[in-house]
Amino acid sequence: MNFWEYLGNRHQQLLTDAFQHASVVFQCMVVATVLGVLIGVATYRSEWAGNLATLTTATLLTIPALAMIGLLIPIVGLGVPPTVIALTLYGLLPIVRNAIVGLRGVDPSLVDAAKGIGMSPVARLARVELPLAWPPILTGIRVSTQMLMGIAAIAAFASGPGLGNLIFRGIASLGSKNALNQVLAGTLGIIVLALLFDAAYVLIGRLTIPRGIRG
Amino acid sequence: MADTPGSPQTPQTPLTPQTSETTSRSVGAAIELEGLTKRYPGGALPAVDNVSMDIRAGETVILVGPSGCGKSTTLKMINRLIEPTGGRIRIGGEDVTHMDPVRLRRTIGYAIQASGLFPHMTVAQNIALVPKMLRWPAARVRARVEEMLDLVGLDPGEFHGRYPRQLSGGQQQRVGVARALAADPPVLLMDEPFGAVDPITRDHLQDELIRLQRELHKTIVFVTHDFDEAIKIGDRIAVLRERSHIAQFDTPEAILTNPADDFVSGFVGAGAALKRLNLTRVRDVEITDYPTVTVDDPLQHIFNRLRSSGTNEILLLDKQGRPYKWLRRGDMMRAKGSLARAGTLVHDTVTRDATLRDALEAVLTDNTGRVAVTGRRGAYEGVVDVETLMNSVHELLEADRLEAREAQHGLEEQRAAQTHAEQEGFGGAGGLGGEAKA
Question: Which of A46, A208, B41, B292 is the most exposed place for a label (fewest CB within 10 A)?
Fold first, then answer.
């Protein structure tokens, strides 16, 4: 069976896996974005708190994905929970870092102006600082997503959902006639998904970055 | 005069009776600073030390001084962007030292260097910020935005939807002022607002501010390190030395002709006589009428005017009534009756708010020996010629000399009386006082 025949035979299964893969990455990205921006907002004003947040998330990222999931299994069991927790933690770093850099990068004279015309601290954040920091934050989200696409494949190790299952199955049965097809299908699927997500982010950027600050 | 932009002039914005009520503006409120002090933790000396100042309602007061003298800090304590560590602030008689700062700032206009416009919002959104925070109804906010744009001399239809980066520096600064004035605050604080624009634009903006202030009568506190700007704009100037100590707080004329001490005279700098020209405006001298024609007039009419005018040249106005060209008698002949080729372009015009120095500059650069005076939207109003200027300057300097001599005389008398009193009062101590003075 060559690769194309394999794809034709298994497309139902492949589509399900791809959908689950995309779904878990998307959901984890939503959680990571909300958490990451919140952490950024909470820490950017203070030198040490911001650095601590960046350092902590950076440290999390250095833990090998396989080890992280392996460590999570005894705590939260198999399947979806360790996958979601691991992906969310990995997704945090680029978002937190870019949120802090973006918020700190807002021109101090604009913050001064916002205060000076009588904006409350919440309004200042929501109407001036976050909109101006949004382009770097969105870049962080993009980087995170690309990263999670790959890391999500490892979730199959904990019986998680997604295209990783194909790759693991293929590697486990190396030598059998479909092994290579499985690995190939899983890998290519992840690449296609990553490209689709990236295209979506370009579109989101066009829609959400105000015309006045679009580069 | 055409200078009444307060009245809604833009036909595309029908103003409802309710909104035209908002044009009956609140005028300025007095500001009293009493022993205002700012001490930063760890600093040996306070950044601002015990400043007391009474600023009258509707007055433009300039805080001027070398950089780092605390003038900006003093300004920012008025709207409590910097919290004072001592003293009190009263605005319109009300003690605002402990009022909620957010609420306070919505009643105080604030314009800063490089405009401080938010780049992700359109011009209209920027201007509408404070009125929206004050929960004005949407229709009133909209009308107000148009009105403010018109007030600062920007066409609402054209600039409404633009983003700050699509504006020139001067236009940005105008929008910054419009935003500061949008909610009609009685007090306007300006922190080196024209510091980041080129000199020509700065000059125009200064003229505009003077025009605005004549209509609005806000209380303006304006910080600058440029003494020429201070004498041009200010009703009174506070010259500050380090830690915001007031070296002299007086009218520009008084500071120029009678500086309180060496620090002030050092700051005033050389060329006080020329600077004096900055204190008199074109409106204060005689603006004469001058024969004009417009580009729409038939050529025959222009010829007749030239012949009957009794002057060597006449002023050609464009379709909007703005000075366009100087036409000499021979010009029309040489250009074979074509207006497009005839005459010399008008290089420079001045408004009634321009200083005599600007006018002199314009007269000197234009070879016609006179400069056209324009009003709103650049429309022709009259001319000032070099004789008028020279006469005014002579009169001014003469008056100043007289005044200075009187002040000097007064000072000497005062000193004599003091010395006399010291000698009478303390005997030996008088010698010490005399030494200290020497």
Answer: B41
